[in-house]
Amino acid sequence: MKTYLRTGIVVLLGFLSCSTGFALAATPDVPSYERKPGVAGKITSVGSDTLANLMSFWSQEFKSMYPQVKFQIQASGSSTAPPALTEGTATIGPMSRDLKPSEIRAFVRKHGYPPTVLRVAMDAIAIFVERRNPVRGLTLEQVDALFSVTRFCGGEQPITQWKQLGLNSDEYRHPIRLFGRNSVSGTYGLFKVMALCDGDFRDTVNELPGSASVVLSVATSQDGLGYAAYGYKTAGVRALPIGKTFDSLIPLTTQTVRDETYPFARYLYLVINKSPTEALPTLEREFLHYVLSKEGQQQVQRDGYFSVPGDVLLRQRRMIE
User: Fold this and answer.
1) CA torsion 215→43→185→306, rounded to 10°?
2) Which residues contact 122 (CB under 8 A, 6 or more apart)?
3) How far apart are the first and last CA of the chain?
4) Band of pLDDT at residue 14, cut at 50, 70 and 90
5) What would the pLDDT profile of 139-155 be if each residue is shown by its tens digit?
6) Which domains does the chain have, with CATH numbers?
7) DSSP labels, 93-108
8) pTM for the whole thing?
């Protein structure tokens, strides 16, 4: 298991266990955003597809307050964020996974200090099927046996047919069609560790450039099954309960993400270049203040994700002030 991702999961669980809930009503100390004068300029965002919709929502509301601000958003995958920040071609790097040690080293060599990583939302990687598919749920071993050629999580044999998941009707006589993310995606990397025990994907997994593409493919394929960011869920798909055994299947809900029982929960990040000896530029600072405000976190919830617990949110705000 990769050290950087294993560490990220431990940090994630630690933060989850100390939270008291996602609802902003439970965290009245989260400040509202107050508009400031003289905010103008351009923000360039390069990174996660998972955060693409959120970045769009945040930027639209921010521009409604500051018409002189422009955004350029490129959502080509989490792996594109660190080099763009290192080389100065991006202001902000959205990521759905932790930074790798090699990415941090490259940034430090260039700038002399590490990048600043802000937790801005919570998400879960869901396993989706077409909404009418009756499969009850999946064990962790079955998830690995479906997607992995190495089966490091303990599966005895690969799962390729619906009858291996208990569906014996003629309606599900065709092989399972698998969908997932491409290798530059943070969702791909994190799922590889969390669900495949750091094993290798089967070559039958159709790799798609975005979570929206995965969800659409599953929704329009009776035999489809795929993993993607839960925030992209539509009415055409159903997120399967996941557990160690069939008797302990865990549905994906706000509560199960909050109490860390759903296996594939995660934070979403914005990474920035902040010198330890200098204040952030006004535009960048105000945008991050908005993201980490009550209004910014309400946008998180509207987009289908989970807002950051209040105590964590306030720590993120102190990092940029």
Assistant:
1) -60
2) 22, 257, 265, 266, 267, 268, 305, 306, 307, 308
3) 35
4) very low
5) 999 999 999 999 999 98
6) 3-122+266-320 (3.40.190.10), 124-264 (3.40.190.10)
7) EEESSPPPHHHHHHHH
8) 0.84
